[in-house]
Amino acid sequence: MDRIWSYAPDSGHVEGEDLTGCTVVAPDGTIGQVDRQADHYGMRHLVVDTGVWVFGRSVLVPVGVVTGIDPGARKVTVSCTRAEVKAAPRFRTDSETMDPQYLTTVGEYYAALPPRTASAS
């Protein structure tokens, strides 16, 4: 499960790069913008502001689902769909980004998602 908390080698991630403000895009549309990045307990993740799409709430996305970073376009591409992000364990407060139990639950959810393949759903 450690892979879910690490950028893939081919993601385009550059250590120390600030992704705040980047648009986060799923295969089926835009999710929102990176509000902040965090790395608590070795569990790297992005907190994404979804705007009005999910009733103005933020979501926590492990960096292991990042498939591409385009710094010029200020865009982060993820492998999961909008529905998968919306169904992830609910992110309520900033303190959850430092709660190992919550982070483990989120990691298990994303790690269990089907691999990125063409699907009919």
- Biggest pleated-sheet summary: 6 strands, mixed
Please state how the strands of the largest beta sheet are arranged side by side.
4-3-2-1-6-5
The name of the CATH superfamily reads: PRC-barrel domain
Order of helices and strands: EEEEEEHH
CATH class: Mainly Beta
| Alpha carbon gyration radius | 13 Å
Can you offer a commentary on this structure?
- The chain is an alpha+beta fold.
- The chain has a single domain, classed as PRC-barrel domain (SH3 type barrels), CATH 2.30.30.240.
- 14% of the residues lie in helices and 31% in strands.
- It has helices at 82-86, 100-111, and strands spanning 23-26, 29-40, 43-49, 58-62, 66-70, 75-78.
- It has a 6-stranded mixed sheet.
- A hairpin with an 8-residue loop joins strand 3 and strand 4 (58-62).
- The longest helix is centred in the last third of the chain and has 12 residues, at 100-111.
- The radius of gyration is 13 Å and the shape is globular.
- Mean pLDDT is 89; it is low at 117-121.
